[in-house]
Design brief:
It contains 10 helices and 14 strands. The chain has 378 residues and is of the alpha/beta class. The strands form 2 sheets. The protein has an 8-stranded mixed beta sheet with strand order 13-12-11-7-10-9-8-14. Strand 11 and strand 12 form a beta hairpin. The chain is globular.
């Protein structure tokens, strides 16, 4: 009879909205995880999150958390402007690292983190939680199996509906790592690559900036070296939507990450309104409803992506599993994000044949007029 694994002792740095509503509950649901300490410069957020999850050790300075000798792994959940500083300190302290996306503010910062992680001998996981959504995994398996035929186009939409909810000040400002091109778009830039294995070679973007928020809304198109096209719509203020449409040679696949019955396939020579497709949706809903209600009682399928992400991280630390999302993967998504920023500001398509030196803070956004659509490639 095998013995139960010891719990991994974890500290979290950052107690903002995503941390409090996603990461804290995810860890509480994992038997192999023990949250032993938290840190945040915002005392109200710190006390509220720590009280909710009964965490005794609380620090206003993350360096004090890193002085706790019993902590084995740390989740860095701070705003993007502080990713490089805090994640570097975690790795230098000898702890395993789970780092929320995006990776860093610039390619230079990203390169330093990648090299530090490589030399640390510790697990460093990039937290693109959508990779762990079961419907995303299902779509990826279908693409990789060849059943759908070659993929021609993938369209993604991520709109977070913050017109109805509080949004932190930093998330509105590109120079601090916010704005839809960076904060929301990064999920799609990673998923495009995760689903197809394709590397992006050219990016075009258009966005608007107002007093309310930078890059709001934003549209990005991209072309892969292997021929696939990608399109993304991103917003913090349009109604909630998290969807992927995959147009392949044989079938159309539609994935809605917020619905338990959110996986749909259609033959390429059919349309939404045909009776067989409409009946198929109703049948899928009825078939998936019992499991959907069960998942809802556990927080829902999307919340489950954070649990799956942390479970994988723990398996990497305790069992030597290979990380499925590395800091190198984060660097590739960052390259697309920075190219999108450059394209939105210049009105030109941006090739990714080499690294773009600028980071988000280098590109003006606040108070500018709506940007021109990128010119087509010559």
């Amino acid at each position: 009879m095998s013995r139960a694994r010891p719990k991994l002792r974890i500290g979290l740095i950052g107690c903002g909205k995503v941390a409090a509503n996603r990461h804290f509950p995810a860890l509480a649901a994992i038997e192999q995880a023990e949250l032993v300490a938290v840190a945040d410069t915002d005392d109200n957020a710190l006390q509220r999150a720590a009280d909710s999850h009964r965490v005794a050790r609380r620090f206003r300075d993350y360096r004090e958390l890193l002085e706790q000798v019993d902590i084995e792994a740390v989740g860095v959940l701070v705003d993007l402007a502080h990713h490089h500083e805090v994640a570097s300190a975690v790795l230098e302290s000898g702890r395993h690292l789970l780092l929320e996306k995006p990776l860093a503010m610039s390619i230079d910062e990203a390169d330093r983190l990648v090299e530090l992680a490589r030399g640390s001998g510790r697990v460093a996981l990039m937290a693109f939680n959508s990779r762990w959504h079961p419907l995303v995994r299902r779509a990826r398996e279908q693409i990789r199996s060849g059943r759908l035929g070659p993929v021609a186009l993938i369209g993604t939409a991520l709109c977070t509906g913050h017109h109805q909810r509080y949004i932190p000040a930093w998330r509105r400002v590109r120079a601090r790592g916010g704005g839809s091109l960076i904060e929301n778009g990064s999920h799609s830039y990673d998923l495009w690559r995760f689903l197809t294995g394709a590397e992006i070679e050219e990016v075009s973007a258009v966005s608007c900036s107002t007093e309310r928020s930078d890059d709001e809304p934003a549209v990005v198109t991209a072309r892969a070296a292997s021929g696939e096209l990608f399109n993304g719509l991103f917003s913090d203020f349009l109604p909630d939507r998290n969807q992927i449409d995959i147009y392949a040679q044989e079938r159309l696949v539609r994935v809605s990450l917020y619905r338990f019955d959110g996986y749909e396939e259609q033959p390429i020579r059919s349309c939404d309104g045909q009776m067989r497709n409409r009946v198929g949706r109703a049948a899928r809903f009825a078939l998936e409803l019992p499991r959907g209600l069960l998942r809802l009682g556990r927080g829902g399928g999307f919340v489950g992506t954070f649990q799956a992400e942390w479970r994988h991280f723990i398996d990497c630390v305790q069992r030597g599993a290979t990380p499925e999302c590395t800091l190198e993967d984060g660097r590739e998504a960052l390259r697309v994000a920075l190219a999108a920023v450059e394209s939105a500001d210049t009105g030109r398509a941006v090739p990714l044949s080499g690294d773009r030196p600028a980071g988000p803070a280098a590109a003006p956004a606040r108070g500018s007029a709506p940007r021109r659509a990128p010119a087509p490639p010559a």
